[in-house]
Amino acid sequence: MKRRFSRQINIGGVKVGGESPVVVQSMTNTPTQDIAATVKQIERLANAGCELVRLAVPDMEAASALKVIKSQVSIPIIADIHFDYKLALAAIKNGANGLRLNPGNISGKKKIQEIIVAARSCSIPIRIGVNSGSLSKAILKKYNHPTPEAMVESAMSHVKLLEDLDFHLIKISLKSSDVLQTISAYRLLSQKVDYPLHLGVTEAGSLISGTVKNSIGIGLLLLEGIGDTIRVSLTHDPVDEVRVAYEILKALGLRQRGAEIISCPTCGRCKIDLFTLVDKIEHDLSQVKTPIKVAIMGCVVNGPGEAKEADIGIAGGQGYGTLFKNGRVVKKVPEPHLANVLIEEVRKMING
After folding, report:
1. Among 68, 81, 189, 252, which residue's beta carbon has the most beta carbons within 10 A?
2. What contacts 299, CB < 8 A, 6 or more positions away?
3. What tens digit of pLDDT does each residue of 278-298 get?
4. pTM, rounded to two decimals
């Protein structure tokens, strides 16, 4: 697929846009003021592959906490700011690598200008975050509804505000809980600007419904070459946001990280507890970073033949199963040992 051209920005050493890979981002759900809990969660996110993390900064205590948090984590942090420009200034002072703000809810050009001066002096990019639920009254009056066109007009007005202040370290997001509206908005915006675009479907929902909405919305746009960073929004552990994000990227051939699990949905031929088997293997291999295809099949019919593209896998039988590598059966394994044997063999393969 041909990638949309976008100018490149640098967020704490992570390059976004240009020819850089699509970057995976998430957001903590711990109180930022709780430094220990926030650091612990960021470490979990980083281990899962998160490359940028956004933190809510609702008050000065949270802004001050950024300095300590940043000194204890390995990935760049982005401060999420609303309403109070002083919080943005404090976040910059305390080491934030990026800002996410909606210039429309920070009243007054002078306040925006102060933020821009501070951000420019530290080469800190700003993400203009437009959500369908927070459009200005004037925009809503014009369009009668938060349409894609309304979202794009809002974003462009904020872009102009920053450009008029000679600031171009910009990333933009246009999010809605409506998947089709989100897709349309990004398509329109991608034709108007060359700034990097951050993709997401906001307030997407629970693990299952949110995964579906994000996969369709983010996946379709990426397939069209649109998008430079992504955040899968889920009402769930943010580590799962990162895991789903990588599954989307892997499915599209854009990024390869960790074990790709290939498993059958089971049928009446299956004589082993494949559900438990898959859960255990997926959990135990969740920290693997090396790309590898692992097949977990319910019977010999869906064994090496159906999963011949896998690097390694197992196929169930009755009381036993077979271990195969690159489509060839290696040995038979008693059912109780299938999971552990496969996990051990995977680790041998990735460790040489």
Report:
1. 81
2. 267, 269, 270, 271, 315, 316, 317
3. 999 998 888 888 999 999 988
4. 0.91
